[in-house]
Structures are given as structure tokens and as C-alpha cells.
Give the backbone structure.
Amino acid sequence: MTSAPTQQPPGPPARRVDGSMSLLVDMMANTLDEAYAERAARTAGTAPGGPSEQDPSRRGGLGRRAVAGLVVLALGVVTGTAVAQVRARQEATTGLRADLAGEVRDRTAATDLLAREAEQLREDLDAAQAELLGADAAGRAAADQLRLLGLASGTLPVTGPGVRVVLDDAAPPEDAPDATLRGGTPLDGRVQDRDLQDLANGLWAAGAEAVDVNGQRLTALTAIRSAGDAVLVDFRPLSPPYVVRAVGDTAALELELLDGPTGRRLATYASLYGLRFSLERSDELSLPGAGTPQLRAATPLEQESTS
Amino acid sequence: MIPALALVIGVVLGLVLEPTVPAALQPYLPIAVVAALDAVFGAVRAQLEGIFDDRVFVVSFVSNVLVAGLVVFLGDQLGVGGQLSTGVVVVLGIRIFSNAAAIRRHVFHA
């Protein structure tokens, strides 16, 4: 646009004619747009010869000023828009997080509600079953058998005398970095899944009729295992202290835990690693049921297949 | 005076109206702002040095925005949009700072 080679100010020879395009080339050497100097030099040179060109180009008319003002206005609008957009995006992000947290809470509440409903329905079902089976002798016999099976398999809640064993990690050392965390306890001093397995097996062997760990009833299909630092019972992570309750012959259970192989092993662990272990007997223990097991196998009724 | 007023009015308009920008253009808004700011600081400095020219200002403003946007767009196409954005911001930032220093010298003589 400015093609006045004779009036260009001295500078690098390879400079482009249009100074406003040299944005990234000479940013360090020449921070002010050279076009201003060029333009000034040109108007100064042409001013004496042609005053007609000076007025519309340099310090030009009202139209030019209005355009400049509009350009600055546009800059303001773009700036404001960009700021507004960044804010909107931030709000969207925080809103999304709040939404997710709320959804988690809602779903948890819904799960709790459904669990209570399932419990209620299970009770209704049991009541209806008892009513139907209580009609005749054969039915009552079947109901008794069902109840016994339920007690043995661990699906029904159980109440009775028994023992209560508390097993806990070793006390964290005095200089533990954070005593409230489980990391404060050295690995050796933690209760392992194997310790709980030994305890549960010892209790079963000593004649326990029902066993639970921290409220998780043990059935024939319940696994005690560990994942990372956590001990899982029935795939639910538990945290110490572990309260193991067993209903059964209290004297036999106590004997096993005090003098039997299980008790001796626990005592060894306590003296070697500092595991904490306590035992008390109780006349009245209430163990929860494990819930209805999954239906894994079924056979059609004999009568229908033969007839 | 009038340009400053226009800038303030523009910012308020943008904040209040929140014009919807096409999603494809959104990444270029900050770059456009920085490039335009460079032209504005250059204009203020030229004004103080007595060689301001409306036409040069408008042309440099528009070309600054277009070139910066083009560079970043090209970077996006080549997969280095973020780096090129940084480069543009650094270069323009240096210019803005040195122009601001020149303005400061003119205004405060220090």
C-alpha cells in the first residue's frame, strides 16, 4: 500500500513494503509498527507539494476516527466475549461435578431404598410361605426343614449364645507418620485375609453354627480374601478392627480359641507381630442373614415330566 | 479518550450480551485479543510520539488479528496449535511490554 521507496526511513534492506505485515519478523528490534514512521515521513514529504493528500490520510477526517473507534470497540467486544466464555466454561465444569456428585448421592439413596424394599419383600415372602406351609402336617414338616436349611446355609438370621472375637492390626509405632492412617501400621502387623480365614475355619471346626465378620454373614459360598491392603469378605472391603462373632457351643468355641490350634496361632501372632486379639463370651448374639442366595440350579417337577 | 471509552463500552457489551461464537472460532478469541492489544499499544505509543495515523492503526489492527489467527489455525491443522499459540502470545507479549515501556517513558519521563 505504501509504495514510496525514496521516502522509506533507513533500516534493514530486505524489509517488506507493508510494515504492518512484519509482525513476527522484527519484533525485538522494532517494536513500534514501522508503518507509523513511514506514513509520517511520507506525509511530511508530500505535505508541501500536495496539501490535498494530507487531510484525508493523516489525522484524517471524522470517518477515519470513527473507524478507529469502531475497531477499538470491536476489540472490547471480543475481549468481553472471551472472558464471558471462559467463565461460562468454568461454571459448566463445576456444575458438571456438582451434578455427578448429586447423582451419586441420589443413586446411593435409591439403592438403599431398594435394599430396604427387598428386605421387606423377603419378609413378606417368608410370612406367606409359613402361612401356606402351616396348613397341614406335611407342609409344617417342609417348613421346619426349610428353616433348618436356612439356618445351616446362613440365609436366615440367627440368635443365640456364642463368642465375640476382636482382631485388630498391631498398634502403630510411636513415630508413625500418620497414626490415623492404616499405613501407620507396618505390613507385618496387619491382619491378613489368611488370619481371618484361619479364625473362621477354627470356629467352624469347633462347632460354630453361624459366623459373621463385621456384620457379613459367612456362608458356604463366602470368600475371605484380600485385594491390595483391604480384606474382602463376600467381596465387600472391610476395615479393622475385625469383629468375628460365632453362635454355637460357647464352651467348645472358647476352648478352641484359648487352647486349640486357632487360639495358639493367634497368640503366636500377637507375641510375634503385635496383632491385637480379644475374646469374650456372650449369651445373646444376633447374626444377620446372608440374604437369598442366587438360584444356580433348578429341575422341573417330577410329576409334570412323567405324566 | 474516545478510544478508551469505546474499549470500556465494548468490554461491557461483550460481557453483558455474551454473543455466541461458533465453536470453531472459540480457540482464536484470546489470540485475537492479544494481537489486537499489540496494535492498540502501538497506536498509543505512536500517538505519544506524534506520528499516529488512523489508517495505519486500523490496517495493523486487522492484519495483526488475521495473521495471529492464521498462524494458530495453521498450527491447529498441523497438530501444534498449542505451541504456536504460546509462540504468538510470547512474541506479542514482548512487543506489548516494550511498547508499554515506551509509553511509560513518554508519560512519566522515566
Observations:
- The two ends of chain B are 23 Å apart (CA to CA).
- Chain B touches chain A through 55 residues (CB under 8 Å).
- Helices of chain B lie at 2-17, 28-49, 54-78, 81-108.
